């Protein structure tokens, strides 16, 4: 085994994908089997930092590792391979990664066979890759968002050569289908419908780290969803940076509402969600499809970002305070039972008190069920990074006022479903109160007593106590 040379193995590899990666998964499997003979335990851990897109990448890595003979573990101490999928949308996501890999130094000292690998959005930034190469010599594998599917090939090379392997790509037109993926929950899955983003909001790093928008072939998407349903999946989340522009980059492709309809028609699929629609191109047709199909969840996540027309213009969002509000009114008229959530940024460069008041106005009128609120974080390379920042103290003070207003405004909706019996998809057992936790169609959480056999099932639950953003109930 000592004489194994990666180049020899590579010589026989097919050039085309996914055949090439299937070949490398097999090669990695043989290598791992051989190493097991020497006492290698082949345990792997995938750690996700970031959004659903990053979590989905984590599932792909896990799928490849398991196919190659690795056993999953949640313990860093046990792991022979530790992979991170990273996020760089705000500075604190980067800090989180550095904290985590700093802690791994002592484990690496004990187990020099360990491979620590990092992929994801943060690895698309040259400066971050350089920092890791300089400061963390025990990180042996670095790859990006565009070549994540190459894990088996890259890991095998790192394992055989015992040298650091760094491979990141600026962008790609390639979409590699039909590689393994391991779901975190057996009953729930997310499915990529597109990759990348063409919107270039001026605060956002995503177009730079995820590249130009590329839609998947709708036939592949539907095929994947059908296979998931056959495999017991009850809820599917369709994922794209901006789902509304799905298909526009392909010839004769379905539009997003048409794709949603095609997925909704799959027999046995109980729930469909999607993330994220941009308010700028939210169509009437999309509303009609949501209304038409029972299994499309009554929940829309509609990022506001700012309620000020002036700031929205500087953010390059292509909608105004008034057009966002009129879209909301239309949505609520057509779908009165809808769960509505949003993202809001405070302290974007140039934001005045008057601009901020516009954001509070929208929050008061919209009465979001919940809002993910962020302080603006400067991302180098984006246009807004060159603009004058709002004073930190003012930002944190506005942030607090925003939180208070979100809480206040959602009060009116609190307890809206009290006493009703609603369907809950049971997700897990809550370790704090030992109760089962599940989600209503509108994304609101419900805790209730119940046995293990309910996990992954959709059950009717009576909502008995409102706790603001969640309920307590009991199975009927
Ligand atoms: N600063 C703060 N929040 C940001 N987001 C994206 N970029 C930034 C940034 N530079 C938020 C947006 C987006 C969510 C995923 O993260 O609200 O919708
Ligand atoms: Fe997700 Fe964006 Fe963070 Fe990447 S940078 S993990 S796409 S939120």
TrEMBL record:
Residues annotated as binding [4Fe-4S] cluster 1: 51, 87, 121
Catalytic activity: N(6)-dimethylallyladenosine(37) in tRNA + (sulfur carrier)-SH + AH2 + 2 S-adenosyl-L-methionine = 2-methylsulfanyl-N(6)-dimethylallyladenosine(37) in tRNA + (sulfur carrier)-H + 5'-deoxyadenosine + L-methionine + A + S-adenosyl-L-homocysteine + 2 H(+)
Subcellular location: Cytoplasm
Record PROSITE patterns: MTTASE_N (PS51449), MTTASE_RADICAL (PS01278), RADICAL_SAM (PS51918), TRAM (PS50926)
EC number, UniProt record: 2.8.4.3
TRAM domain boundaries: 415-476
UniProtKB keywords: 4Fe-4S, Cytoplasm, Iron, Iron-sulfur, Metal-binding, S-adenosyl-L-methionine, Transferase, tRNA processing
Essential cofactor(s): [4Fe-4S] cluster
Enzyme superclass (EC): transferase
Complexes and interactors: Monomer.
Function: Catalyzes the methylthiolation of N6-(dimethylallyl)adenosine (i(6)A), leading to the formation of 2-methylthio-N6-(dimethylallyl)adenosine (ms(2)i(6)A) at position 37 in tRNAs that read codons beginning with uridine.
Name used for this protein in its record: tRNA-2-methylthio-N(6)-dimethylallyladenosine synthase
Organism: Oribacterium parvum ACB1
């Amino acid at each position: 085994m000592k004489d194994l040379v990666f180049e020899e193995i590579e010589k026989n590899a097919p050039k085309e994908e996914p055949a090439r990666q299937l070949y490398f998964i097999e090669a990695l499997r043989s290598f791992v089997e051989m190493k097991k003979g020497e006492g290698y335990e082949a345990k792997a851990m995938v750690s996700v930092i970031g959004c659903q897109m990053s979590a989905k990448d984590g599932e792909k890595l896990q799928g490849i590792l398991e196919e190659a003979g690795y056993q999953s573990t949640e313990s860093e101490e046990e792991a022979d391979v530790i992979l991170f999928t990273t996020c760089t949308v705000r500075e604190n996501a980067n800090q989180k990664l550095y904290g985590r890999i700093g802690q791994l130094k002592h484990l690496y000292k004990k187990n020099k066979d360990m491979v620590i690998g990092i992929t994801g959005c943060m690895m698309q930034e040259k400066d971050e890759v350089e920092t890791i190469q300089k400061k963390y010599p025990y990180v042996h594998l670095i790859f990006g968002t565009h070549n994540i599917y190459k894990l088996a090939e890259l890991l095998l090379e790192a394992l055989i050569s015992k040298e650091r392997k760094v491979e990141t790509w600026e962008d790609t037109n390639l979409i590699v289908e039909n590689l393994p993926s391991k779901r975190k929950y057996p009953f729930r899955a997310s499915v990529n419908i597109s990759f990348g983003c063409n919107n270039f909001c001026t605060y956002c790093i995503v177009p730079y780290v995820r590249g130009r928008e590329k839609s998947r072939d709708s036939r592949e998407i539907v095929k994947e969803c059908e296979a998931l349903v056959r495999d017991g999946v009850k809820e599917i989340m369709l994922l794209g940076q901006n789902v509304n522009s799905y298909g526009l980059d392909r010839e004769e492709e379905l539009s997003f509402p048409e794709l949603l309809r095609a997925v909704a028609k799959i027999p046995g699929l109980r729930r469909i969600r999607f993330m994220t629609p941009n308010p700028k191109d939210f169509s009437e047709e999309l509303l009609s499809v949501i209304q038409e199909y029972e299994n499309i969840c009554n929940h829309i996540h509609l990022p506001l970002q700012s309620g000020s027309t002036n700031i929205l213009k500087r953010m390059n969002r292509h909608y105004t305070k008034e057009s966002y509000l009129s879209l909301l009114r239309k949505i609520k008229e057509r779908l009165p039972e809808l769960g509505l959530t949003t993202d809001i940024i405070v302290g974007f460069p140039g934001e005045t008190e008057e601009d901020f008041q516009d954001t509070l106005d929208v929050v008061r009128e919209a009465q979001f069920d919940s809002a993910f609120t962020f302080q603006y974080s400067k991302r180098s390379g984006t246009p807004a990074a060159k603009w004058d920042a709002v004073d930190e103290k003012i930002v944190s003070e506005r942030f607090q006022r925003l939180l208070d207003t979100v809480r206040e405004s959602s009060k009116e909706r609190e307890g809206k479903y009290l006493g009703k019996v609603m369907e809950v998809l049971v997700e897990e057992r809550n370790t704090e109160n030992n109760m089962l936790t599940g989600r209503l169609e509108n994304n609101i959480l419900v805790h209730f007593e119940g046995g293990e056999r309910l996990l992954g099932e959709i059950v009717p639950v009576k909502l008995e106590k409102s706790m603001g953003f969640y309920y307590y109930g009991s199975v009927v």
